[in-house]
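Exercise: predict the fold of this chain.
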Amino acid sequence: MSSTGLQLNAQNDYVVIDNGVVEITWTNPGGIIKGIKYKGIENLLELNNKDLNGGFWDLNWSEPSSKKTRGKFDTIQGTDLQVIVENEEQIELSFTRMWSPAVQGEQAPLYIDRRFVVFRDVPGFYSYAIFEHTKDMPAFHLNTTRIAFMLNKEKFHYMAITDDRQRFMPSAEDRLPGRGEPLAYPEAVLLVDPVEPEFKGEVDDKYQYSLENKDNQVHGWICFDPPVGFWQITPSNEFRTGGPFKQDLTSHVNPTTLAIFLTSHYAGTDLLVKFEPGEEWKKVLGPVFTYFNSVSDKEMALSLWDDAKRQMNEEVQSWPYSFPTSEEFPNSDQRGVVRGRLLVQDRYLCKENLPGKDAYVGLAAPGDAGSWQRENKGYQFWTTTDEDGYFVITNVRAGSYNLYGLVPGFIGDYKYEVVITITEGSDIELGEIVYEPPRDGPTLWEIGIPDRSAAEFYIPDPNPKYVNKLYINQDRFRQYGLWERYAELYPDNDLVYTVGVSDYQKDWFFAQVNRKIGDKAYQSTTWQIKFNIDNVDQVGSYTLRLALAAANHAELQVQINDPTADPPLFSSGEIGGDNAIARHAIHGIYWLFTVTIPSSLLLGGENAIFFTQAKTDNIFQGIMYDYIRLEGPLCQS
């Protein structure tokens, strides 16, 4: 194809860039994308939705007194456009929005500079933004920010987010009253009379298509006539919040494609960015790449996904990009490296230190061990160790960090106690560092796998009325309504697990939820673990380790041999707000509790530990267990 070069045409109300492959139109100076013309499709975007149209950066914010995770929606409208770069190869646009007390209460108190970068003959564009809160700005909560694209409803019907999670999708019309029946919350809709009969009886819910940050690198849509792909590529997680396991939305019905930078999804209020009056803060979000591709043969349309993955890998290899002109985005020469070897010391497993194999090691803002999963204002840099525990974290921005780690198969969080300061070009060798997972004695019994997930536990079949066909044979936890299945399996008595007899893959329900007993009436549930101790050591105490994969406005109480003991031996107090149960996840925020059990509470022979989830306001209050272990006293072998 012959190129017509890179052309910029700025009018009073619009600015248009044509790079010879794609033509993109923004409002001027608003910076809202109104048109993307590519491969014979006049506009890849939808402009006829009732509410949201085109492509745009947006945010959601609240006053500092708010206790909610949602507030005022703001599709960011720029007030000034500047052409930062214009040459034969590259154009970079800057759409800025200032803030003043005159708009207090109407706009989030931030200075926002959104950048768009287009290269000649490249089928797509890059976008990044600099958000800044200055010393003259008031307090507020930043709840969400993202880039959203509303795609052409006539063209895009097939969605792909992983190799195995892709399918033809229902239409937005199918969710409307008459065609769709709202379920327990607005995002979930039962399709009762869809336009395409094949979707009848399915549930559509955008949360069924979430991904963890570490896996959320490319997703999007395919049009078959003509065969064109629209893809959102995120080459780095450094600017996302909550660490590698934080989950968020990808693409979903409308059709919609998102680039998420921060939300409280699957975490709760801990991941709201809360600013104090006059707090100085600045962060670069992105760049991310919006990529378009095509093939000539309609029969090969699904191969566009493979090409999108190829392009994603190219973008990852190119990180950090060299083209952003903002001095707030450091290039590779201005960044640093941290390397070392992580070992694990657990004397009850091995006298020698074990290599921290396949561990996650990361740099995040200084804090307590595990604080990275609630960190929301800085940058994070993660990698995985090799078979021998060696790791290299590259392209780290200058700053002060703690090094954190977590090792599959071991509970808890590692923290390197010395603050690590990265300067331009630094290469820091930590040598061997040793994680000692929490342990006070030998393992008497254990339930589950310490992997921060409840995936190994029993996940029931969905109610046949609420099926998403994509998840019949994979990720079964993503089906709607599984929380209702517990009461159907245990209508009168709660779960009882007998150590040495029960199988946690079949006998331990994946989530401890309330039992519905009437209209908006719920009953707490008490699970018990039965186990034998032949001879109770009367000198030392026993230790119960409780690792939770998720918690949502729950209170976990633990009693030993007496379910009526008041007060209980242990209470977590109200914990969590990750909403993982309702949003079809198998984990949310990780919690680890240690309960000391006096030997006087234990019996020679059969014992029982009772676990009560005490909060009963709604069906979604509950917990997911990751792993449970009982340890004997130190002197017991």
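Check your answer against the key: The first strand starts at residue 7 and ends at 10.
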